[in-house]
Amino acid sequence: MAATRYDVITFDCYGTLIDWERGIQDAFAGEAFRSGTTFDGDAILRAYHELEPRVEAETFRPYREVLGEMARRVSREFHWEIDPGRLGFLAESLPHWAPFPETGEALRRLAKEGYRLGILSNVDDDLLSASRRAMPDVFDPDLIVTAEAVGSYKPAVGHFEEARRRIGGCSWLHAAQSDFHDIQPATALGIPSAWVNRKRERSTGDGPRPILEVSSLKELADRLCGDSGRG
Question: How far apart are CA 159 and CA 145, in angstroms?
Fold first, then answer.
């Protein structure tokens, strides 16, 4: 059965296109090694997931500062005091976080099929630009909306409202890994969404559901490129 055809597909970046969990674990591991500290990488991620929404919901600040505050709060959860001069290690590492293995090929397939592609990301402009420079052969987005541009972090609706303003009347699908940050606010606004649910998690929301749920970007490309055509 052919999928609905969209003009524009937007993506969350970190967690959807780029393996941010591996990037965070590697960054903390490197800083821990530097300071002679050891920790459980999975426990670091659990603490990060719990604390990040609280930090982003506080007074808006640049994402570099969010990352510094996350480094401070997460390390304190494990009774590890990072030198204040070293709190920038997460931001310094971010441009080196790698895409998921299927990211490049999936995006190339979608672009070749004629979809316009975009990014809605909870970061500063310069950090996203650095990530894009690290993977220049992947794609050149037609649309970029950052937290810096809208002055808020998803799940606040600023990214989606700005994207809707720019996209206008074109048909639009938003694809993301985070149910909390992306899928729930997008569906609440009536924006069709695709949940890239790599971990087969259960939604914590009780609102409208995404129109697609896939396990990878490859599966998303398979579904959208398959037999679909214009019109």
Answer: 6
Structure confidence by residue, pLDDT tens digits, 40-69: 889 999 999 999 999 999 999 999 999 999
Distance (Å) of CA 57 to CA 52, 132, 153: 9, 26, 7
Residue 35 is classified by DSSP as H
State whether 87 and 65 are in the same domain.
yes
Instruction: Please tell me which residue in 12, 19, 179, 182 is annotated as part of the active site.
Output: 12
Boundary of a domain, candidates 96, 116, 133: 96
Q: What 3-state DSSP class applies to 183?
A: helix
Report the domain count for the chain. Answer: 2
For position 230, what pLDDT does the model report? 37
Instruction: Name the token pair of 103.
Output: 């990211």
Q: What is the mean pLDDT of each run of 10 residues along the chain (231 residues)?
A: 76 97 95 88 94 95 97 93 93 95 94 95 97 79 97 98 97 97 96 96 86 97 72 32
**Cα distances (angstroms) measured from residue 159 to each of 12, 128, 166:** 10, 15, 11
Residue 59 lies in a domain: yes
12 belongs to the catalytic site: yes
Report CA 107 to chain centroid distance, whole Å.
Answer: 15
Contact 168, 136 (CB under 8 A): no
Q: Model-level pTM?
A: 0.92
Nearest-angstrom CA–CA distance, 33 and 88: 16
> Based on the domain organization, do 74 and 165 belong to the same domain?
no
